[in-house]
Amino acid sequence: MWQNNQFFNDDEKPNNDIPLNRGAKISLWGSAISTLGDALQTLGGAISIEEDRISDAQQQQAMDKLQSQIDELKKQQSQNSTDGSDVEKLGKLLERLIERLEKIDEQKK
To answer: Measuring CA to CA, how many Å separate 59 from each of 1, 54, 62?
Structure first.
């Protein structure tokens, strides 16, 4: 019975087994700490991956917003170009009207 309880009851052990049992206990605690460290390392890696994923999503949203703004500016520029073209046509029509009015005015003199 003494042998079955030797891991749980340090007071009943003979003096020659004490260093061996302490070594086993230290080894057990070291393994537990190492396992906890591995778990923390895995958790840290998962958090890092999630942060990268969130950062990539935020960058993609920013890029989409910028692309939307660029498209809007291109649309406005195209519309302004069309308006500019219309202004040019109107200017030419006004010049023709002025020329005709001047001709009509000269014919009246």
So the answer is: 67, 9, 5
Q: Are 52 and 60 in contact (CB under 8 A)?
A: no
- Give the number of other CB atoms < 10 A from CB of residue 109: 4
DSSP state of 13: S
- C-beta separation of 21 from 13 below 8 A: yes
Q: How confident is the model at residue 38 (pLDDT cuts 50, 70, 90)?
A: very high
As given in the structure block, the two tokens for residue 7 are 């891991």
- Place 1 in a pLDDT band, splitting at 50, 70 and 90: very low
Name the amino acid, one letter, at 66. L
Q: How far is CA 69 from the centre of its chain?
A: 19
CB atoms under 10 Å from CB of 95, counted, come to 10
3-state SS, residue 68: helix
